[in-house]
Amino acid sequence: MSGTDFWDTDKTRDDNPVVGSGGRRRQKQKQKKQKRKRRGSGAAAVASLLFLFVVVGGGGYFGYTELKAYMQPPDYTGEGTGKVTVEVKDGDSTSVIAGTLEKAEVVKSAKAFVNAAEDAPEVQSIQPGFYVMRLRMSAEAAVTLILSPEARSGVIDVPEGLWASEIYQRLSKTTKIPVSAFKKVDPRKLGLPAAAKGEVEGYLFPGRYDLPPDATAQQLLKMMVDRFRQEIKRVNLAEGAEEQGRTVSEIMVIASIVQAEAGKPEDQAKISRVVYNRLKADKALQFDTPVMYAHGERTIDVRYGHLEIDSPYNVYKHLGLPPGPISNPGLDAIKAAIDPQPGKWMFFVATDPENHITEFGVTEEDFARLKKKFDKWLEKNRD
Predict the structure, then answer these.
(1) 90, 69 Cβ separation under 8 angstroms
(2) Which of 15, 197, 254, 324 is most buried (most C-beta within 10 Å)?
(3) Residue pair 256/333 in contact by the 8 Å Cβ criterion
């Protein structure tokens, strides 16, 4: 086959017409058809490009929006208005606190608070409790407020050695619940241990409390009894009482006396020893604090008239322990009641109450000498 024969096909003839007008018409028709085909392909390409722009460009827009929201999350402006109380629980991280604030409508977004808190690392160690915040605050303002002391709500410190009646007064002052409401609480609903014999005195554990804003008098007292039950697990109270030949109730009475009489924590175990020594010797305790508990009066200037009160708490007239605790002791005093310091002391006198100095003695002569020192101090400090 020659070269001419190889290329001499129908397609070649159509593309290269050599005869007649009919061939030219066929060529023009085919050229128009090819142009229409090329125009259709161009339109499809443009449509494809538009589709890609919408998908890719649109995705980029939404991605940018999400990135912007992450980098610049929604935030209120200003200091906010109104009040709302939120709770920070023990162990809450900054992000958890942020979520709590967002849910309470304090901040517009948790992320805004987290971002603002990056410049305030103190947020990471914020104390658990209740905080009074404002609604719709800027994240920066929320960080500043929650770190300020005035934001804390319902915080109360209950010192060791207070009477139940004094604790009621403190709780009432903080919560505005009347003292009478605390007095009316049924002790059977507080979860008191059997050793309490249905009395709260001695079992309202001292310490710092964050009081829920809507708590009732019963709930607040139960909170303190629950704390007692929790803290007492740190000492083996029942075993310690048995080793001393005492009941748990008696140990709590001794602890309450130790707490009331000790000027310093280091004196507690020695005072506990005086209690045990006097009980063993069948001597009246002759301590002032149980007598003044019966009077409902706090004073170190105890007069002979005070000692005439007819009460089982008058341990000048009655041998043995008073019938119940005379204060609400802390854990150190309870430990001292379980484990008194070895010694032969039979007396102790607060010879310098202002500086919490207590001295101990074994004999009556020692007591007379120490009592003289106290009288001298009292004469100089009548006010």
Answers:
(1) no
(2) 254
(3) yes
Q: How many domains does the chain have?
A: 4
Give ∠ CA 306-307-310 in degrees, rounded to 5: 95
Residue 1: partners with Cβ closer than 8 Å, 6 or more residues away: none
* CA–CA dist 258, 274 (Å, integer): 10
Tell me, what's the pLDDT at 383? Answer: 72
pTM of this structure: 0.76
pLDDT digits (tens, 9 = 90+) for 4-37: 333 333 443 444 444 444 445 555 555 555 545 4
CA distances from 15 to 5, 28, 242, 382 (A): 16, 10, 120, 132
242: number of Cβ within 10 Å: 13
Domain that holds residue 47: 10-71
Q: How far apart are CA 99 and CA 118, in angstroms?
A: 16
Residue 109 CB partners (closer than 8 Å, separation 6+): 73, 74, 75, 102, 139
Q: How far apart are alpha carbons 329 and 257 in whole angstroms?
A: 8
Count Cα atoms within 13 angstroms, Cβ side, for 193: 21
Looking at the fold, whether 340 and 244 belong to one and the same domain comes out as yes
Is the domain of 106 the same as that of 199? no
Phi-psi region of 92 (alpha: psi -120 to 50; beta: other; left: phi over 0): beta
Shared domain for 173 and 103, answered yes or no, is no
Separation CA 373–CA 362 (nearest Å): 16
First to last CA, the chain: 140
Per-residue pLDDT tens over the stretch 130-149:
999 999 999 999 999 999 99
pLDDT of the residue at 119? 87
Last residue of a domain, one of 110, 134, 153: 153
Integer Cα distance of 294 and 187 in angstroms: 21
Who contacts 329 (Cβ-Cβ below 8 Å, separation ≥6)?
160, 161, 202, 206, 252, 255, 256, 258, 259, 337
**Which residues partner with 208 through β-bridges?**
157
